[in-house]
């Protein structure tokens, strides 16, 4: 029984060591394209600053006007 436990433990350790190999002949690299559809309450948002005539402005229930713009990077 002692030998069986030793062989079982050795087998599990060997399997773990072999399965954790760092060799990877087939790396998983894919091209990913992200698309964003900017909407607010199902209305498409046109981005711009507060002075832009074509930018979307939304008025909240509290009467605040919100302008949507792209972040400066």
What is the helical fraction, as a range of percent? 10-25%
Task: Report the mean per-residue pLDDT as an integer.
Answer: 79
Strand content: 5-15%
Q: Profile the largest sheet.
A: 2 strands, antiparallel
Low-pLDDT sequence parts: none
Number of strands: 4
N-end to C-end Cα span:
67 Å
Q: State the secondary-structure class.
A: alpha+beta
**Radius of gyration over alpha carbons?**
29 Å
Order of helices and strands: HEEEE
Shape: elongated
Count the helices. How many? 1
Report strand order across the widest sheet: 1-2
How is this structure best summarized?
The chain has one helix at residues 2-19, and strands spanning 39-40, 43-44, 57-59, 65-67.
Characterise the protein shown here.
This protein has 73 residues and is of the alpha+beta class. The protein is 25% helix and 14% strand. It has a two-stranded antiparallel ribbon with strand order 1-2. A two-stranded antiparallel sheet has the order 3-4. The radius of gyration is 29 Å and the shape is elongated.
Which SSEs are present, and which pair or pack?
Layout lengths: L1 H18 L19 E2 L2 E2 L12 E3 L5 E3 L6
Antiparallel strand pairs: 1-2, 3-4
List keywords for this structure.
73 residues; alpha+beta; two-stranded antiparallel sheet; two-stranded antiparallel ribbon; 14% strand
